[in-house]
Input
Amino acid sequence: MKQFFLSLLVLLVSVVVGLSIWIYYPKYKISQIQEQSVTVASQQELTYIDHFRMLDQTYLNHLAIGDSIITGIGAEGEENFVDHFSKQLEQQTNKHVITQNEGIPGVSSSQLNAVVQKGTFDQQIKDADLITINVGGNDILQTMEGMDYHKVFQSFDSMQSTFINNLTEISRKIRETNEDATIVFLEMYNPLEQEHELYDIADQLLPKWNVKIYELASSLDYSLVMQTTKVINSNHQQYLSADGVHPNSLGYAALSKQMLEQLRKKPFVKSA
Output
């Protein structure tokens, strides 16, 4: 009997340790990547904004691809994220920013990958100095349709694997077409209030999702991840539109400010 309880204790400890690693390691990994970037930034003088200013041209091409966040759903007729940011970038660089918003509401990573691989955006990618990408939310929504939450939880790893494979292929296509453009990926954010029954689940799963985006960006030259979760979270519900998912005009303005701040601080360097 004593041996049984010892074995049970070891099993319980193993489960707790394994679960803790599963939950907390992605957050730790993201924090490490962010801190590494800050450390490098303190040793570098040339930031992304500096790079854009120094380009021997009077304009900048900003291409944005992805889903309804890129399109600007929720802006209620006011400036969306892409337009707002591009205007701010003009002020920071004293260069005219030509914006091409190719957002597709409802698009999944598989659908966006198919469009990119088809060559639909080849010319825009070739001309771009900056490429902003937001996709993945619809992967989750489409998977959840008709499923209970337990099955969604079980299918998470498969869903994430499909997403990151698509995002990797999109990035590869971009780099084959344009070696020098800056690529900015957006984190997936949790728009739920803390009182929502799914808040804790989303809060545990999203870091696992986002860490893969960080790892991909770290493997690419001139790429970074915008910390969307610093802006859209349970403490900033005022940034959400009436649907409770998309940012409103204030939210898009806050996202623009966050992206600009990172480009002003992060070093313009190749991947390690």
